[in-house]
């Protein structure tokens, strides 16, 4: 506890208990978050292979990284997955939230059903969808056995479609969360807005599109940041569902990092790739943080 | 409790508030048919994978090879479950998921306890006993929550190796405590900050100190937030794959890693019924937590969504 000011106690020992309680936080913030990040970025400029070594080679690792077909595929996949996942999550999440917000019965039941996949891990999600999308037993086989013999639906075995197969699983797992966030946003809208819109004879879809959604801007922004930082990290889902295959056609950056650090024993490549991931997140988060906090502080 | 930081955009309590106002009059209006119809179709789609998992796990292999995955089992068998639990092979050993289950228990229980103890005391210090510089470290912690884990995993390997914990369960517990810290500290700090300040002042006047106020006043009053934190941590840590695969050795892999190894192992004939039984078994703990906790889960994820 902070001692009563008798004389001039050493400032370091004032409020000592609070400082002791904060030691884990300070260590985590300084050593792991700042120190670890800086360490990785510094070593991404070295030619470390099996062990980290401070033998600087400039941007060589980055040049090699961007020349690697596997990394190019990983980035392309992340872009496709990311953009589609953002659009579909927001649209599906919002529409479901709007439906649940119509003063319906069994709202809790519907919400529980739509949200339960979010409690499951990406490993479980990936394995279930791997099974459902299995061409020999899953959807393709079922449709064929109904008589449509030439039906083809094997996204996980088709290099140009595999990322969409992963997207299906990712959306199943994640849209419930977005729906919940959107529902919270909708419930935050003043009832009087709806009454006023109805009095003015504005159709419902117009009220949503031109009045309610603009009012929910902060919710959309927060959801966007949550979605984006989750997308950049996508890893387990791919490992479980396709292991990056067929071939390397469903690689993602997070998997590239892991494989180079722990399997290929090419640490420099892993560090360079993870630094690129960091850069992506900075590009997403900094403008948001600036809008969210910078603006408020000045106001 | 969310008023102070960026997450404020989503007032979690609003999710819980039920529908208000009078009931719609016409039960079978076109509008109602559209709303309920859509919701029922979507719900069926969301339930489908769970149904397929259960159905597949109760069939024998011959039936799976012949039939369709959506058909209910003609002959129910629990053998796949027994095999998934006790004798399925991962390539290294053949004692099934049970080993992974107990590893996950031994990882999750201490991780949940340690991370919540640290974060609650820390959040309390940040809310009520602020000292110079505290906010700087707290800001770093929150910003750090957005850094991709991939950037920090190798430095942590080095730190753990230096203190001799790399590959051990204790090492993994430390890692989970570190990465759970931002969101949990935020959660507790905001909760304690929302408590009336008079309470704290009155206790100070009565001569209670840092720990006295924490144990005798704050702790008994903050049970709900502890439950939210526990739900958040149990599901998060149980579902983790990345840290488990990096920071433990094969004999102490958590359940998710072992599940992946069982299902995606290359050798032998694929036994889809065993795979699906193993998948359900792994999902059972978080599903149980989800269905038991109900609204508190929603509150937890609304608060913890940043964790991603």
**Rg estimate of chain A, integer Å:** 25 Å
**Cα distance, first to last residue of chain B?**
20 Å
Task: Tell me the helix content of chain A.
Answer: over 70%
Number of helices of chain B: 15
Q: What is the average per-residue confidence, as pLDDT of chain A, rounded to a whole number?
A: 89
What CATH architecture of the largest domain in chain B do you see?
Orthogonal Bundle
Order of helices and strands of chain A: HHHHHHHHHHHHHH
Measured by residues with Cβ under 8 Å of the partner chain's Cβ, the largest interface is: A-B, 106 and 102 residues
Total helical elements of chain A: 14
- In CATH terms, what is the fold-level topology of the largest domain in chain A? MetI-like fold
CATH C-level name of the largest domain in chain B: Mainly Alpha
Helix content of chain B: 55-70%
Specify the CATH class of the largest domain in chain A.
Mainly Alpha
How would a crystallographer describe the biggest sheet of chain B? Answer: none
Given the C-alpha coordinates, what overall shape of chain B results?
globular
What are the segments of chain A in which pLDDT stays under 50 over at least 5 consecutive residues?
Answer: none
The CATH topology annotation of the largest domain in chain B reads as: MetI-like fold
Calculate Rg of chain B over CA atoms.
24 Å
Oligomer: heterodimer
Structural class of chain A: mainly alpha
Helix/strand layout:
The complex is a heterodimer of chains A (299) and B (308).
Chain A: H1 16-21, H2 23-43, H3 60-67, H4 69-100, H5 107-119, H6 122-132, H7 139-145, H8 162-187, H9 191-199, H10 204-215, H11 217-232, H12 236-241, H13 253-263, H14 267-298
Helix pairs in contact in A: 2-14, 3-14, 4-8, 4-11, 5-8, 6-8, 8-11, 9-10, 11-14, 13-14
Chain B: H1 12-16, H2 30-57, H3 61-66, H4 79-86, H5 98-128, H6 134-144, H7 149-162, H8 169-193, H9 197-205, H10 210-221, H11 223-238, H12 242-247, H13 255-264, H14 272-293, H15 295-304
Helix pairs in contact in B: 2-14, 4-14, 5-8, 5-11, 5-13, 6-8, 8-11, 11-14, 11-15, 13-14
């Amino acid at each position: 506890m902070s001692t009563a000011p008798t004389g001039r106690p050493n400032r370091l020992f004032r409020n000592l208990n609070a400082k002791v309680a904060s030691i884990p936080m300070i260590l985590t913030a300084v050593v792991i978050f700042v120190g670890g990040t800086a360490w990785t970025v510094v070593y991404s400029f070295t030619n470390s292979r099996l062990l980290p070594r401070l033998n600087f080679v400039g941007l060589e690792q980055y040049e090699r990284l961007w020349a690697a077909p596997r990394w190019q595929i990983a980035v392309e996949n992340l872009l496709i997955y990311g953009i589609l996942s953002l659009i579909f999550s927001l649209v599906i999440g919002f529409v479901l939230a709007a439906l649940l917000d119509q003063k319906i019965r069994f709202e809790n039941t519907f919400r529980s059903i739509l949200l339960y996949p979010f409690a499951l891990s990406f490993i479980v999600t990936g394995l279930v969808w791997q099974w459902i999308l299995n061409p020999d037993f899953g959807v393709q086989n079922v449709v064929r056995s109904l008589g449509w013999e030439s039906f083809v639906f094997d996204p996980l075995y088709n290099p140009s479609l595999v990322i969409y197969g992963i997207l299906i699983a990712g959306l199943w797992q994640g849209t419930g969360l977005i729906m919940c966030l959107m529902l919270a946003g909708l419930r935050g809208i003043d009832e009087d807005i709806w009454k006023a819109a109805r009095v003015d004879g504005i159709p419902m879809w117009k009220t949503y599109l031109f009045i309610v959604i603009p009012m929910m801007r902060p919710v959309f922004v927060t959801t966007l940041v949550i979605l984006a930082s989750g997308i950049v990290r996508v890893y387990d889902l791919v490992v479980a569902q396709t292991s990056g295959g067929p071939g390397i056609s469903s690689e993602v950056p997070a998997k590239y990092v892991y494989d180079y650090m722990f399997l290929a024993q090419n640490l420099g490549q892993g560090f360079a790739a993870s630094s690129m991931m960091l850069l992506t997140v900075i590009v997403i988060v900094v403008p948001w943080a600036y809008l969210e906090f910078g603006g408020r502080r000045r106001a | 409790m969310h008023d102070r930081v960026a997450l404020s955009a989503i007032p979690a309590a609003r999710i819980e508030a039920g529908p208000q106002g009078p009931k719609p009059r016409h039960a079978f209006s076109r509008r109602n048919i559209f709303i309920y119809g859509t919701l029922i179709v979507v719900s069926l789609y969301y339930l489908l994978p769970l149904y397929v998992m259960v159905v597949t796990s109760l069939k024998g292999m011959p039936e799976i090879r012949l039939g369709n995955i959506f058909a209910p089992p003609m002959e129910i068998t629990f053998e796949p479950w027994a095999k998934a639990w006790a004798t399925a092979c991962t390539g290294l050993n053949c004692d099934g998921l049970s080993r992974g289950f107990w590893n996950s228990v031994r990882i999750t229980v201490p991780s949940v306890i340690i991370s919540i103890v640290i974060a609650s005391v820390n959040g309390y210090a940040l809310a009520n006993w602020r000292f110079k510089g505290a906010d700087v470290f707290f800001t770093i912690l929150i910003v750090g929550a957005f850094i991709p884990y991939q950037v920090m995993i190798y430095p942590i390997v080095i730190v753990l190796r230096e203190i001799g914990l790399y590959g051990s369960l204790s090492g993994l517990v430390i890692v989970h405590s570190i990465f759970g810290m931002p969101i949990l500290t935020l959660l507790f700090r905001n909760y304690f900050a929302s408590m009336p300040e008079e309470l704290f002042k009155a206790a100070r006047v009565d001569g209670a100190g840092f720990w006295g106020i924490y144990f005798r006043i704050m702790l008994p009053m903050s049970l709900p937030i502890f439950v939210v934190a526990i739900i958040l941590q149990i599901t998060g840590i149980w579902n983790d794959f990345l840290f488990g695969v990096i920071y433990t050795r094969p004999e102490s892999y958590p359940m998710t890693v072992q599940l992946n190894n069982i299902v995606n192992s290359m050798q032998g004939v694929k036994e889809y019924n065993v795979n699906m039984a193993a998948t359900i078994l792994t999902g059972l703990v978080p599903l149980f937590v989800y269905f038991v906790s109900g609204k508190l889960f929603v509150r937890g994820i609304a608060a913890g969504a940043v964790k991603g």
